[in-house]
Amino acid sequence: MSEFDPHALAEEDFLEEVRSVDFWFQAVDGYLRDRSYGRVDGTPEPVMEAGERDNLITTLCNYCVGETAALEASSGLVVIAPNRHAKIFLATQVLDEARHLEVFIRRLSDLGVEDPEHEIELRANPNLVRFKDRLLEFVADRDWDAAVFAQNVILETMEYTVFRAHLQDADPVTAQVLDGVVKDERRHLGFGENDLGRRLVAMPEKRERLAEVRAELDELVLVTFEEVQDSVGVERSARADLGGEYLAAVERLGLT
Amino acid sequence: MADFLSQYSIQRWLEMCPQGYLEDTVYGHSPELKEPVILVGNETLREESIRTTVQLVVGERCALAASSGLVNAAPDFPSKRFLATQTLDEARHVEIFTRRLFDLGVKEDDLESTLDEFANPNLVKFAEVLLEKVEAGDFIAGVVGQNIVLEGMAFSVFEMLEAVSREANPKFAETLTGTIADERRHVGFGENRIGSLIREHPERKADVEKMQAEMTYHMLATFADSFRGNAAVVEETRAVAAAEGFGPETAEWHGTDLAAASPEEMEAILADTVLGEFKTRLGRIGLEYQSPPVPA
Amino acid sequence: MSTVEQPDRETELAELVEQHRARRAEGSERRHYDLDDRGFNEVPKKWRKFYRHWLGAGDTLAPNEIICPVCKVVIRSVKEIRAGDRLYCMPCMSRLLVVEADDGTLVPEVVY
To answer: Is A93's Cβ below 8 Å from some Cβ in B?
Structure first.
């Protein structure tokens, strides 16, 4: 029998462990220690055609829009989180999202973008911007369930799947950056699904409201999915599976 | 501004904190360290430790709400990024001080009621003044309240507690050392970032100074409650500790031996230190320290 | 550059059926496993050997392994996995209950 068996933990101890800052410190240490701004030092900058570079810049700008939404939403959610575990976890998510923004902005600079913040504004996908606005409205209204659903289920699942798809064909530096981000996203989408799932079990009447939120945001999400994948160059045949991850999460939550 | 803020990147934070002074710690201290048996076993000492720790949790909860709330109000990405690191720092402080309450025997189910029972009402009001500004999205007032006033107070309180605990309770002292290292960054950001904003918005001075006076009032009232108003308990705790052979023979801090000082003297040295820091820091960012009415 | 862990669900299902049948054929004795570190670096060191990445086509699940439905990481146990087992996915914080599906396969359900 192992000295440390996670599966032998009592449920409360498991939650206390995985939502702690201590867990976060040790978890990110495993995959960020040898990296600077998400990349391994000494990795050569790849040579790119102008068109390819421009596509990558557009893609990264939109990743920044998503990460800005997540940074602003997760920080706004700390104060309305219903318990201390959720507050602590969201504080780690705030840091993760700020780091993602930092590494993507750094990557834009590497690619020669002189004013990344201006470039992000210019190239932002309007559907993603609308999604962000709606998400921040939920936060401003202190609507915990809708905000966690929009952020930690919809947005995080979208990012998780798109980043993983992009990682397959990305240049080595971008792939290193995305690799660290994907590892963070696992925590975020897991938190969202588990928190909401538990609340829906306790308060099933909330399901109807969240189904409405889902109906409202689905179009924005799926259109954005398509457009971001176009810019990343994901094969059409692979897309059903990507959308499938989102639909599977929604189904597990009973929001179909 | 850009150059100064580039010092506060997440990358640098990762290298300094989790990979730096917090490496190999568990909840802020070396894994082998425990609360002294005598502190947990003696009811008078235990209750006084719980009372002190509760104030730390209340202060850090306020700092967590304020720093996370200010992310959205920040006018630029580098400031948002710094506040994201501060949010994580404050969450860590909430966690380690909450953990200390559990180590002192507070049951998880009793956490909130323990906080309610022991939280100093003046400290709660202090927090409310700040959080009102944060809620209103007032970045300048929020950062002055949080990173100059609250953090300035915390910095000195932690230093004082660390001086008293260094010999008698290495676990708590180590926990405090890590938080002091964090607070240095926070007060540094407050001064450096707000200085330029105050110059750009001189019309905000009066309002921000009024908030500082109000927060200072509640802070001094908290100190008064904790020392003069609690003098009998402080003296009893000290007598019990002496009888048990627990506690330092001397604990020098800012020229005062905290092990021998009366509650009034301890309150005076803490208040003088914090107010002295306020005046210096506020002066550097172009604000004039406002004296509050002396609490009764 | 990292590979993407995208399990092929049909293959995964077929493998699970196969493994479950094999386990039943072996009888009721529950096997124990000494876990080794497979390089999964997304959780603190002491928990790392309990997880690994799904390596895609060609990868197979051992009787003490199951895939997290939420984040697709392979969860490993020191025991052969059976219906009724509770497992935790630390990378995504999910709590799972192993159930036996109608077709006899063992599947993890998320417990909220």
So the answer is: no
Contacts of A90 (CB under 8 A, 6+ apart): A74, A75, A77, A78, A81, B68
pTM of the model: 0.90
- Contact A55/B at CB under 8 A: no
Residues 6 or more apart from A246 whose CB is under 8 A from it? A154, A157, A158, A161, A221, A225
Give me the residue spans of the domains in chain B. 2-284
- Look at the domain B2-284 and name its fold: Ribonucleotide Reductase, subunit A (1.10.620)
Mean pLDDT by 10 residues, chain B (296 residues): 68 90 93 94 94 97 98 93 95 97 96 98 97 96 95 94 93 96 89 88 95 96 93 88 85 92 95 94 93 70
CB < 8 Å to C47, chain A: 4, 6
C43/A190 touch (CB, cutoff 8 Å), yes or no? no
pLDDT digits 0-9 by tens, A122-148: 999 999 999 999 999 999 999 999 999
Å between A25 CA and nearest CA of chain B: 6
The dihedral sign for the CA sequence B90, B4, B70, B80 = negative
**With touching defined as 3+ CB pairs under 8 A, do chains A and B touch?**
yes
Specify the CATH number for the domain of residue A229: 1.20.1260.10
Contact B166, B247 (CB under 8 A): no
Tens of pLDDT, residues A66-78: 999 999 999 999 9
* Structural domain boundaries, residue A138: 49-252
